[in-house]
Amino acid sequence: MTDTTISRSIETVLKIVNDISPRIASAYQTTTRNELILVGGAALFSVYNLVQYIKDKSTAKYYLPPRVPFALPLVGHSLYLLWDSNQFIDWCAKKYGEVYEISIMGKIVTVASGLSGQEALKADTDFLSLEEGVIKDVLYLQYAIDKTTFEIGFYVNPVVAKAVISHKKVPRHTEGILKGMDAGFKNLLPATDSFVLKDPNHFFQRLIAHMSVPTLIGKEVGDNATVIESFAAFTADVTDNIPIFMSVPVVFHRFITPYLQSFKRHRVIMSKFIAPVVESRRQAADAAKLKGETYKAEDDFLQGLLEFVKPDGTNYTADQVAQATLLVAFASVHTTATNLAFCAYWIVSRPDIKQAILEEIESVVGKDINTELTYEHFENMPYLDKVIRESVRQGADVLAVGKKCLKTFTFSNGYQVPAGRVVETTNRRLNMGLSANRVDISEMDPLESGSRPPTTASRDYVTFGMGKHLCPGRFFAVLEIKLTIIQLLRQYDITPSTSSPAHPVKLIGGFMATNSSAPIRFTKRKL
């Protein structure tokens, strides 16, 4: 194309603009405000439908599940979920089957329930990825940790967990957990006979950190207040930023991240206090080897990380191991504290359940609160097992997991999920079946869990995952929860701070479950 041709084209465009500009200005001046709003709304609706049409055309080659109708522009089915998510999901399953598509805030997601939900939970990470889904698209953990830490967290931590905190090895951590718990009670609770905890979640998170740091990270930092606080606060810093990141376009995230909760301070703390422990242990092992002596390694999670051998035959550096403990913190503190809170609030809201647990504790341990707990005590409380299992079961998300499809995934019924789409599973419905709508406090029945322990997964208990994705840290988490409930009830009577107990489970957006945050009254028991 010549310069003359380009010049003529530009002149033609300018002439057209000059011709129509007065008409547009005149129309704008003579149009009422309501007419402008109507035209603008129509234009926006047209653009929205055009975008949806383009998206639908791009997935036309797939055998897609049915799409639930009646979606509203921009918000999709979000208002239905907000109004009554359990009934909406039940209606969708009854009308469209196990797999269907809905729109959440204008974004199409695939929902899987029943056997298809189990398939999604068990799916290989090459197809459905938790890391690329909820971890990066909801929690935005990629802003808090680097690529190597992600690698350790998703591929090394599960291996170490199975070796260090398996069902067979978890009993040996009982003493350390109890020691950390005692320190937590002393540091976190007032010395008065009666008090109200206005922020129980803050207490539960820090109590779990007190128990987890010495047993998972090491005795060397077991009473290090800075490390313990960072362990607990890292989770809160991540979750507190989620609403901000979700309301701001991704392209602007890098500009706002420096002004949000500081992730850097946690990395600095881990490098300052944990990396030297790694170096010290490695030096001690090398020194023992030179002397021909047997090195007695610590039996904790940190030791498993620092000894892990990569495929190339090398170990991770001390600082890489130190940074990886942040994901240990997130997994141990966030999930365990949430499930502990579910249990505590059910106990607070149901005096009959609390009394039954107390009677079981007294029959196994005795009435003397100075009697030391043992793992044998822990194993002989079947009713408390039922309470924990049912509390955790009730706390499942209505729509959960949020795995991103990395390459076309096909369910056994033939329906397909295209790459890039998110798959949500109906975890509460999988857990509760036809009782998913049972939400009244009085309807919670621990006996519905039968005789299965809270660590055993089943088709009606998917809280800890399924198949090869079953949480390897569940034995340690349940041990912490159970010991905490026993010790709390032995030392305190916990009751609602008001005449009306809060419901233990709250729903964010109508489908994401979290625990109550209502204040709890603690009253010391008489010796």
TrEMBL record:
Instruction: Spell out the PROSITE patterns in the cross-references.
Output: CYTOCHROME_P450
Does the keyword NADP belong to this entry?
A: no
User: Record's Gene3D superfamilies?
Assistant: Cytochrome P450
Q: Which residues bind heme?
A: 471
Keywords recorded for this protein, A-Z: Heme, Iron, Membrane, Metal-binding, Monooxygenase, Oxidoreductase, Transmembrane, Transmembrane helix
The Swiss-Prot or TrEMBL record annotates one GO molecular function as: oxidoreductase activity, acting on paired donors, with incorporation or reduction of molecular oxygen
Family affiliation: Belongs to the cytochrome P450 family.
Q: What is this protein called?
A: CYP5312 protein
